[in-house]
Design brief:
Largest sheet: 2 strands, antiparallel
Strand content: under 5%
Number of strands: 4
Helix content: over 70%
Radius of gyration: 21 Å
Number of helices: 15
Structural class: mainly alpha
Number of domains: 2
Distance between the termini: 65 Å
Strand order of the largest sheet: 1-2
Low-confidence stretches: 91-98, 268-273
């Protein structure tokens, strides 16, 4: 028996014409379709297709042979779609305003990006390692102590380098554990989430690279810092949403709260810039 909340999510998901087509295609091909087959049938870009597959949530899943197929709930959605497509269109998210909101959500919370990376096997860990290495080494070279939402300065290179790694680990682990439930199945996704957050730290790595140039102009430094910090916040919350399967808005609030708590809880031992 399907719950009212599940029914609501189905109507929401199927309000989008691309997702209706995906459900219909997979319903007509119960053995599943490869990503390339879906892309060819739907004539969508890679990013758009990954985004819509991600938005379908637990209506679709990827089999061991990498083909996409409907879940049990997905088949219920398929039957609903076939029996009363007009009702689905009317009750789903079909208005121009809602369509714009859907697009903005995809831009501000690019969970689809991490879904795309998940299919690329070792790409995420390698990219995360590069980002963390560049960030740590640059912090050490420029004498910057990073703690996610603020920076300080130190003449101890090791301390500076470790601050970038510290920021990555603390925000990743605390935000992950803050989303219930902490089941063994969820904890299996923690290593991949750590890699995704490592990759999402790249705006902060960019900031510590260019920060010495920005020291001469306070206004420019603050503007650039805020922009890059917000970009990091959106990417990390998207990674959290992808890893824990929670709503993007929930992931954003949890990530922002973790960053805020880190800001006020950890002593800000500022020293003059070199």
């Amino acid at each position: 028996m399907i719950s009212e909340s599940d029914l609501f999510r189905i109507y929401q998901a199927l309000g989008n014409p691309h997702r209706r087509k995906i459900i219909m295609l997979l319903g007509e091909n119960p053995d599943g379709l490869a990503f390339s087959e879906l892309k060819r049938e739907l004539n969508l870009s890679v990013g758009t297709l990954y985004y819509n597959l991600d938005q379908l949530g637990d209506l679709v899943h990827q089999k061991s042979d990498k083909k996409y197929a409907l879940t049990e709930k997905g088949f219920i959605a398929y039957k609903m779609l076939k029996s009363d497509i007009e009702k689905i269109k009317n009750e789903g998210v079909t208005s121009g305003l809602s369509g714009l909101a859907d697009t903005l959500r995809g831009v501000l919370f690019p969970r689809w990006f991490f879904t795309f990376l998940e299919s690329k096997k070792n790409l995420t860990p390698i990219a995360a390692f590069i980002v963390l290495l560049v960030g740590a080494l640059t912090c050490g070279y420029n004498g910057i102590v990073l703690n996610v939402t603020w920076i300080a300065y130190s003449s101890i290179p090791v301390l500076c380098s470790l601050s970038f790694i510290w920021s990555w680990l603390v925000i990743a682990i605390i935000s992950f554990l803050a989303i219930p439930p902490n089941t063994s199945e969820k904890l299996k996704r923690l290593p991949r989430y750590l890699a995704e957050v490592g990759l999402a730290m790249f705006p902060l790595a960019i900031f510590v690279v260019i920060e010495p140039v920005l020291r001469v102009t306070v206004v420019a430094r603050v503007v650039v810092q805020v922009i890059l910090w917000l970009l990091a916040l959106m990417l990390i919350s998207s990674a959290l949403s992808h890893a824990t399967r929670c709503r993007g808005e929930t992931a954003f609030l949890v990530t922002a709260l973790v960053m805020f708590v880190m800001t006020i809880a950890i002593p800000q031992l500022l020293v003059p810039p070199p």
